[in-house]
From TrEMBL:
Belongs to the ubiquitin conjugation factor E4 family. It is found in: Cytoplasm; Nucleus. CDD domains: RING-Ubox_UBE4A. Keywords: Coiled coil, Cytoplasm, Nucleus, Transferase, Ubl conjugation pathway. Its main location: cytoplasm. This is U-box domain-containing protein. Pathway: Protein modification; protein ubiquitination. It comes from the Eukaryota. Gene3D superfamilies: Zinc/RING finger domain, C3HC4 (zinc finger). Residues 939-1013 form the U-box domain. Residues 518-545 form a coiled coil.
Length: 1031
């Protein structure tokens, strides 16, 4: 019968378990075949000398562990790896112990194994905090130079998670983090112990994403960062890291991006960056090289991948910031970091951005997306939390530097004066006076509850106002969007223009190469082709990250809807008319708040479906209220941008039925839209810019397109007619004057350029002569030819638009055209156009392909004649024929019959032709009558003649400043374009003119006396002729 196996004592079992965990033996010649097991000879001798048994127990555990870590053993693992192994083996032993039947034994052994686990964690912490404490303690091997915690952290955050990144390293591959190790490592320890370890980890994480693009492995480091900041000790350590906000005299936006802990995470992007800071893998090269030859499905796949990866980045970065913001100990540090990033990158708003001193577009677009996520809680449909936004933040923020920004209307001096007036008490050194602060605190009373993160405005020790988080977040988001998303839109627009210019240049060079080949041209063509390929890759990167991200754009639109609703609240809400004076709270807000909203609307309107589901009514109200209000928004170009938005929304252009209701069923629109468009058309004449003369044509082109659409909407057409009646001598007359001015200039310029173009065409068609010219001269003349073509096309398009507007409005609105100060101007314009189109030089304007240049002489003639006829039909006083015939420059009676012949050939309506012929006959009769009247008057004294027109004055007026007398219609015509005295440039308006009654009486007496003299000579003049002369 076999001898029963002797029962082991609890002490022996504990010894076996602990020896397995720590891989040590206290007895020589151990039975274990594991080469990792170490015999602690000296420790064993010490234990024996103390009269203790050589069984490893809880009492000896720490002593044995220290000796094992401190000893020099061949082929032993590094201390940290060994301690991780101990923890892992203890974890495995606990699983085995759970199967023991003896409950007491099980409890005792579990306690021993758990103590071993705890000891392994504790010494791992000690070792990382003091690397030189144990032998073989070099933490960072030469290959990775990173903390040994690094791979464990990656293994932990990647456990069971599929990574989307491709092309990057999997930092946690081949490493298994024991369950619970990191949790135990970071808890139950003081900050001072963990802080240096965490700081090293943050530096390693930062380094792992430095110059990593969206196609690289950014997800593991970002998840690791997120894991650490969720630990209270981790959050505190991060914001106390010297690289949280780097310091130094050379600190700029790019330095913060590249050296701060969070900067490189925000740098991960698909957008192009300067060569020095270029990330890998190269997104443009990998996804979009030779895009023109790729299948559409491949491009779509790249777009989807990039958008998905970017949204993963945005979400994880937002979670990191949100976690830090929810922690009262770290919240202010986050706001300070964001403010520093914004303030140090203020020059990103410039047209030319220095990539060495400014952070990348990628960082700021990412930051834009993250800030919009943080703002989401107060972007609800009803914008219920907008009262938490305090306009005084602009002047008194402790974080953001907003004072240097251009304001909507107020100058910096006016703002300073206003603040002094509101807060007359001297400041206490905190930058804010005490009385003023009390006022601010009262204004902020509504903000003390309900903010997203429950941050209440409180007084700090420095006597500075604390604004609620919603307020801080609102202004920071506005600044970030200005420097980020909106700047990226601008960069994209310039990139598209660069591509267009390069393609035009390439086309020209290829044409030249076809005519006169040269090696130099071949090199230039090759360079341009490479440049276009690079530009195209960059363009597709922008499209992938921004244009294809409908959610990002819709979030931005929600934010700017809050912006415009909040701004309107500063002037009393959505109601017209506006207050008589602009409140300083509104006037002093940064101009870019509105500019960015308009730019976003323009950009989004051009992306299919980007506006679907967006509430546009508030934007529409805002635009109608302010586009013609220079006393609220000073910058005319900003107000002109509002018209550009409306242009994008015209139903025929937007392709969306939703936008038609904004024009045709919108109360403010029906009441004020036409009026304000006409007013802006006039205001834009003087923008104050050195390019104002050329700018106005582009702006008026947008207004004209919109007005033409509104004329077709009956309710708007009725409003237009009513304005023309009410403002006959006001804004409508000014509008008409500038419309005529532009028409004359544009058509004249176009026709002259056509003559120049024909000369160039003739030069180039004489092949023999052309080939003899130097190559450089031929290139210059060819470029000039293409330039002239573009100018003619643009000017002709604008001229057609203006003449068309004169034609359709004059059919139903004639009175303003026939006013004394306007009728001759209108007649002169029409006569000039008629002369150009049917006069002697018409044949010299013949082009091979007139449609290419938008030159449609037949259509133009039809419209000119219709304007003549419309005005003749509305001419109850029969003054139009005399105005036509009095034009000494262009009038010729034969032009009317010549035009009628052309009209018959091109199939114009017979009634129009007949009315036009009759008008020509009336003009001819008026010319004859005018000659008779002039003969009757004989020599007219100079003092009765207008000094500008040299015609007999009918209503002389004195100019108050220069004291010179002019005929009222003449000076009124001048004042329509220029509100100054033509003789000394002093300010002048029609109301300031002084009737010269004494001179008028003398003129009338002169006319009567000349009539009587003529009668006395047996003249057959009718008695009413004298009256007619001065009516």
């Amino acid at each position: 019968m076999a001898t029963p196996k002797p029962q082991r004592t609890p002490e022996e079992i504990e010894d076996i378990i602990l020896r397995k965990i720590f891989l040590v033996n206290l007895k020589e010649n151990p039975s274990s075949s594991d080469p990792r097991v170490v015999y602690l000879e000296m420790t064993a001798a010490e234990i024996l000398s103390e009269g203790k048994s050589l069984l490893l127990s809880r009492d000896l555990m720490e002593r044995v562990l220290i000796d094992r870590l401190s000893g020099e053993f061949p082929d032993s693992e590094p201390p940290f790896n060994y301690l991780i192994g101990c923890y892992k083996r203890a974890h495995e032993e606990i699983k085995k112990i759970s199967n023991m039947k003896d409950r007491t034994m099980r409890s005792e052994m579990e306690s021993a194994a758990k103590q071993a686990k705890k000891l392994a964690v504790s010494y791992a912490r000690i070792h990382l905090g003091n690397p030189g404490l144990f032998s073989n303690g070099d933490l960072r091997d030469n290959k990775s130079l990173s903390s040994p915690l690094f791979p464990l952290l990656f293994a932990e955050v990647s456990n069971g998670v599929m990574l989307d990144g491709f092309g990057g390293n999997d930092f946690g591959s081949g490493v298994d983090c024991p369950p619970g190790f990191l949790d135990e490592f970071f808890k139950d320890s003081d900050f001072d112990t963990l802080d240096p370890i965490l700081k090293g980890l943050y530096e390693d994480l930062r380094g792992s994403v430095l110059k990593v693009s969206v196609l690289g492995n950014f997800q593991q480091p970002l998840r690791a960062l997120s894991y650490l900041v969720k630990l209270p000790v981790g959050a505190k350590s991060l914001v106390n890291h010297p690289w949280w906000i780097p310091k130094g005299v050379y600190l700029n936006g790019r330095v913060i991006e590249m050296t701060s802990i969070l900067g490189p995470f925000f740098h991960v992007s698909a957008l192009p960056d300067h060569t020095i800071f270029k990330s890998q893998p190269d997104v443009g090269q990998q996804c979009f090289s030779d895009a023109s030859t790729r299948r559409a499905a491949d491009l779509l796949s790249s777009f989807t991948t990039i958008k998905t990866l970017m949204n993963t980045l945005y979400t994880d970065l937002a979670d990191v910031l949100l976690c830090l913001l929810r922690n009262p100990e770290t919240r202010d540090s986050v706001l300070e970091y964001l403010a520093e990033v914004i303030n140090k990158n203020a020059s990103r708003a410039h047209l030319q951005v220095d990539p060495i001193s400014c952070a990348s577009s990628g960082m700021f677009v990412n930051l834009s997306a993250v800030m919009l996520r943080l703002a989401e809680p107060f972007l609800d449909a009803n914008l219920t939390k907008r009262d938490k936004i305090d306009p005084t933040y602009v002047f008194n923020s402790n974080c953001l530097d907003l004072r240097g920004l251009t304001a909507l209307h107020a100058t910096s001096e006016e703002v300073a004066e206003w603040i002094d007036k509101v807060n007359p008490v001297k400041t206490d050194g905190s930058g804010l006076n005490r009385d003023g602060e009390n006022g601010l605190r009262q204004m902020q009373e509504a903000s003390t509850s309900g903010s997203t993160l429950n941050v209440k405005p409180t007084r700090s020790s420095g006597e500075k106002v604390k604004y609620p988080f919603i307020c801080e977040c609102f202004f920071m988001t506005a600044r970030v969007l200005n420097l980020g998303l909106l700047k990226a839109f601008s960069d994209f627009k310039h990139l598209v223009q660069d591509i267009s210019r390069s393609e035009d240049a390439l086309s020209t060079l290829k044409a030249m190469q076809g005519q006169t080949p040269s090696a130099q041209l071949e090199l230039e063509i090759s360079r341009l082709e490479k440049e276009i390929e690079l530009y195209s890759q960059e363009k597709l990167c922008y499209e992938a990250q921004i244009l294809r991200d409908g959610v990002l754009i819709q979030r931005a639109l929600s934010f700017y809807r809050l912006m415009v609703v909040w701004l309107v609240g500063l002037v009393g809400g959505f109601k017209m008319p506006l207050p008589s004076t602009c409140p300083m709270e509104f006037a002093s807000m940064p101009e870019h708040f509105v500019d960015d909203a308009m730019e976003l609307l323009i950009f989004a309107s051009r992306i299919p479906k980007a506006l679907d589901g967006v509430i546009l009514d508030d934007f529409m109200n805002f635009i109608i209220m302010f586009m013609a209000s220079p006393q609220f928004i000073k910058n005319p170009y900003l107000r002109a941008k509002m018209v550009e938005v409306l242009n994008c929304w015209m139903p025929r252009r937007s392709g969306s039925s939703a936008t038609s209701t904004l024009f045709e069923g919108h109360q403010l629109s029906l009441e004020y839209l036409v009026r304000n468009l006409l007013k802006l058309y006039v205001d834009i004449e003087f923008t104050g810019s050195h390019t104002q003369f050329y700018d106005k044509f582009n702006i008026r082109h947008n207004i004209a397109e919109l007005l033409e659409y509104l004329w077709q909407v009956p309710s708007h057409r009725n409003a237009w007619k009513q304005i023309a009646k009410e403002e006959e001598k006001g804004v409508y007359l000014n509008f008409l004057n500038f419309l005529i001015n532009d028409s004359i200039y544009l058509l004249d310029e176009s026709l002259n350029k056509i003559l120049e173009l024909k000369e160039l065409e003739a030069e180039m068609s004489n092949t023999a002569e052309w080939e003899r010219r130097p190559a450089q001269e031929r290139q210059e003349r060819t470029r000039l030819f293409h330039s002239q073509e573009n100018i003619i096309r643009i000017d002709m398009k604008l001229a057609n638009e203006d003449v068309s507007m004169l034609a359709f409005t004059s059919e139903q609105i004639t009175a303003p055209f026939l006013l004394p100060e306007m009728v001759e101007r209108v007649a002169n314009m029409l006569n000039y156009f008629l002369l150009q189109l049917v006069g002697p030089q018409r044949k010299s304007l013949t082009l091979k392909d007139p449609e290419k240049y938008e030159f449609r002489p037949k259509e133009l003639l039809k419209q000119i004649v219709r304007i003549y006829v419309h005005l003749a039909r509305g001419d109850a006083k029969n003054i139009f024929p005399a105005a036509i015939s009095s034009d000494g420059r262009s009038y010729n009676e034969q032009l009317f019959s010549a035009a009628a012949d052309v009209l018959r050939r091109i199939g114009e309506d017979g009634t129009i032709i007949q009315d036009f012929i009759e008008l020509g006959a009336k003009a001819k009769a008026a010319a004859s009558e005018a000659m008779d009247a002039e003969a009757a008057l004989g020599d007219i004294p100079d003092e009765f003649l207008d000094p500008i027109q040299y015609t007999l004055m009918k209503d002389p007026v004195i100019l108050p400043s220069s004291r010179i007398t002019l005929d009222r219609p003449v000076i009124q015509r001048h004042l329509l374009s220029d509100s100054t005295d033509p003789f000394n440039r002093s300010h002048l308006t029609a109301e300031m003119l002084i009737p010269n009654t004494e001179l008028k009486a003398r003129i009338e007496e002169f006319v009567r006396s000349q009539e009587l003299k003529k009668h006395g000579e047996g003249s057959n003049m009718q008695s009413s002729k004298g009256a007619m002369l001065i009516d």
